[in-house]
Design brief:
Elements (H helix, E strand, L loop, with lengths): L1 H13 L5 E7 L5 E7 L12 E8 L2 E10 L4 H10 L15
Antiparallel strand pairs: 1-2, 2-3, 3-4
Helix pairs in contact: 1-2
């Protein structure tokens, strides 16, 4: 788990502003897909706004969302570890709402 998470963090740090990367076969059961989007205000020169948002899918349903998670201060590691272990999933869309 640790090696996989550290590789994702490295990829996130190298991700350009407003780009999204897809991570498949994530989680202890390898059945999660992550969509990780770099903040649109990210400045590669200064490192300002080095933040990502993560949407997690399981069996084609979104099961978790995180916003504005800092890439290098340990926050992203904690979020990825939480997701890996299927803890405290929550989406930003209220259950039962049809969009």
């Amino acid at each position: 788990m640790e090696e996989r998470i550290n590789a994702i963090i490295k990829d996130c740090d190298n991700l350009q502003a407003d780009y999204t990367m897809k991570v498949t076969e994530f989680g202890a059961n390898k059945n999660l897909t992550l969509y990780i989007c770099k903040d649109c205000d990210y400045d590669a020169e200064t490192g300002e706004s080095n933040l990502v948002s993560i949407s997690t899918k399981k069996n084609d349903d979104y099961v978790d969302d995180t916003d504005n998670t800092h890439v290098l201060d340990g926050s992203l590691y904690k979020e990825l570890e939480r997701i890996w272990n299927y803890r405290d999933f929550e989406t930003s869309e209220p259950k039962g709402v049809i969009i």
